[in-house]
Design brief:
Length: 310
């Protein structure tokens, strides 16, 4: 089942190219916000699944193009994002030590929304296409072999990054990752039963229709059972929380003003969003892999605009 929020946060079930309003089916769930509704639905999903499936099958949907799709996880209590969690197509000699960081709920935007690049001296703005998991029940110290019991579903996830900021006495991950609009998600939560093997999904990202990231989740360094085990050993995860599994960095490139971005994890639908930079800064369109093939380490330098180095 593909679940989504749309318009004024009505709950919908996506069916092909349309979405069916099922908000009345869950009207008896007591919730003060869309995130509360999602949590209540997740916690009681076995009681509502049949009703939702029946409503979706029997009702006429509205074309997705005619509605405003909202983030499917509007305001999670925790967004855990894995760091350096890919073998980069086998180019790493060994996995990096397992690590993660938190992104705030204020960073979340949805399909069709805009990532805004602020007036800050970042050396480059990048955004990483990832497969993310939505937690299905209270999770603390989950054994790796039981990971699947704690996952409700999956969604497309973007980890926006403002790189090259100086520490200034603070945490560089915080400055780089926590900014408003830096976490597009959606358009749907696809329930776990629809994804037979999340460890073998193709992840793609397009910048202005140009394919830049194209990798498989089987390249993950610390794989999903270990990710769930480790994350839940660090903190209690609640229904509706998000765990993003990391990215293969080789296809990353500079995001800049006017870019139209699409990403798709196999089976999860396609997420669209825009990029705005009021400073109109520019970078080369080379990916990290392009730079490596030229024998140059790191990312492409800024070409024009404020903070460009002469």
């Amino acid at each position: 089942m593909k679940l989504a929020f749309f318009n004024d946060y009505k709950l919908g079930v996506a069916k092909g190219d349309s979405i069916v309003d099922v908000s009345d089916v869950v009207s008896d769930l007591h919730a003060h916000s869309p995130q509360d509704l999602l949590r209540a639905l997740i916690e009681n999903f076995s009681s509502y699944r049949g009703k939702l499936e029946e409503a979706a099958a029997s009702r006429q949907g509205t074309p997705l193009a005619q509605v405003d799709i909202k983030p499917p996880v509007p305001k999670p209590y925790s967004i855990v994002a894995m760091a350096v969690n890919y073998m980069e197509d086998g180019t790493r000699d060994a996995p990096a030590p397992i690590n993660a960081f938190l992104k705030p709920a204020t960073s979340v935007i949805g399909d069709g929304d805009t990532m805004v690049l602020e007036d800050i001296p970042a050396s480059i703005f990048e955004a990483e296409a990832e497969m993310a998991m939505v937690v299905g029940k209270l999770a603390r110290n989950v054994p790796a072999e039981n990971w699947a019991d704690y996952i409700f579903g999956y969604t497309n996830f973007i980890d926006g990054s403002a790189r090259g900021l100086q520490p200034g006495g603070g945490n560089t991950f915080y400055q780089m990752k926590a900014r408003d609009t830096y976490c597009p998600m959606g358009p749907f939560i696809v329930t776990a039963d629809e994804i037979s093997d999340p460890q073998n999904l193709q992840v793609r990202l397009w910048v202005n229709e140009n394919l830049t990231q194209n990798y498989n989740t089987n390249d993950m360094a610390h794989q999903i059972p270990r990710v769930v085990e480790w994350a839940s050993s660090c903190q209690t995860l609640e229904p509706g929380d998000v765990i993003a599994t990391g990215t293969n960095h080789r296809g990353l490139s500079a995001f800049q003003d006017g870019d139209k971005i699409e990403m798709e994890v196999e089976g999860l639908g396609r997420l669209h969003f825009n990029v705005r930079d009021d400073l109109k800064r520019t970078w080369s369109r080379e990916t990290r892999l392009d730079m490596q093939n030229k024998g140059v380490d790191g990312t492409t330098p800024q070409l024009t605009g404020k903070y460009a180095k002469s």
